[in-house]
Design goal:
P-loop_NTPase; five-stranded parallel β-sheet; single chain; ParA/MinD_ATPase; Rossmann fold; eight-stranded mixed β-sheet; elongated
Length: 346
């Protein structure tokens, strides 16, 4: 596979570029003279031209191509735009101010998006509503249909969604291992670090001291997952911190699981008020109960998306370390229909 190309003979600038490339997890090919760049020019996914060799490169008449950047350590130098046009660059990148932009550009060049993962958040209207089971079941259903799926446990007080899957002993990273991550991360690296079962990758909490998920860490995880996955399912707590708000802001749809009784609807209304601050497409998933599904939806002012069925033997299966029973069970059929609804609307 071709690597991004840096064209510069300025050692200080090259040191900066190598450091930025390392932050993006990318190796560079380097041309120290304009003439040395020609063998790499057409094949490199991204070309970074140092301002010191821009005029020399333009003089060689390189064929037009996309994804060329002019990089400089000078600030607000008007001559840079002339050089930018001369080498066919699409932008001038000033270091160190635009380092983060360059990290993203290098990462995208090295690992272009292969998929466009849809993010679905799941929240419970009150404790024990069944949101975690629905999140795990939806992710399992998608992965068994061949969709590359990431299941994200965003509830540090939930005991770990890996337990719901019967995979609490699986080796791999949990949130505390990656909570300090920010900036770009490749999905391949994320998938390698986390417990993965076929097409399903799981980011769960451990059973130790709970902590908030930093916004930057959630952003890095979801950005990677959207590039490498078909579906991302995020299990949310009822109290939202910055990390959960970040997930909601990226959600195509948020499902609110509600017990169909008066207390359940009243509690769900309070949760709904929080969710509405961060996301737009909200849908209620009522549990069977004293109130009819249309009454629950009308009371909350959001549309319904089917009734989450009671599943015989579910609690017993989870207690003995088995995942939720799906397939042709009522829960399995519900998740299959819900998945079809969500993907058709995407």
């Amino acid at each position: 596979m071709h690597r991004p190309l840096a064209i510069t003979d300025d050692q200080e600038l090259l040191d900066d570029l190598l450091r930025v490339a390392a932050a993006a997890g990318v190796e560079l090919d380097v041309a120290h003279a304009a003439a040395q760049a020609r063998p790499y020019w057409s094949g490199a996914p991204l070309v970074i031209v140092g301002d010191d060799l821009a005029d020399a490169l333009a003089a060689t008449g390189p064929p037009p191509r996309q994804n060329v950047l002019l990089v400089t350590r000078a600030v607000a130098d008007p001559s840079m735009w002339r050089r930018c046009v001369a080498v066919g660059a699409r932008a001038v990148v000033e270091l160190p101010q635009a380092e983060r932009l360059l990290v993203d550009e290098l990462g995208e060049a090295a690992e272009p998006a292969t998929r466009a993962g849809m993010v679905v958040c799941v929240s419970g209207g009150r404790g024990g509503a069944g949101a975690t089971v629905l999140a795990a079941s939806l992710a399992l259903t998608a992965s068994r249909r061949g969709l590359r799926t990431l299941l994200v446990d965003a509830d540090p007080l939930g005991g770990g969604i890996d337990v719901v899957l019967g995979q609490e002993e699986a080796t791999g990273a949990r949130w505390p291992d990656i909570a300090g991550r920010e900036g770009r991360v490749s999905f391949a690296a994320l998938q390698e670090a986390l417990p993965t079962f076929g097409e399903l990758t799981v980011l769960s909490w451990h059973r130790g001291e709970p902590a908030a998920i930093p916004r930057q860490a959630m952003r890095a995880v979801l950005d990677a997952a959207r590039r490498g996955c078909d579906l991302v399912v995020v299990d949310l707590p009822r109290h939202l911190d910055d990390g959960e708000a970040e997930a909601l802001s990226r959600a195509a749809t948020t499902l609110l699981v509600v017990r169909s009784d008066v207390r359940g609807v009243l509690a769900a209304g309070q949760v709904l008020a929080q969710l509405r601050r961060h996301t737009a497409d909200l849908r209620v998933v009522p549990r069977p109960g004293a109130l009819a599904p249309d009454v629950v939806a009308a009371s909350l002012g959001i549309r319904g998306t089917g009734v989450l069925p009671e599943q015989r033997g579910l609690a017993e299966a989870l207690d003995r370390g088995a995942p939720p029973p799906l397939g042709r069970t009522p829960l399995g059929r519900f998740c299959s229909t819900l998945l079809e609804t969500l993907t058709e609307a995407a």
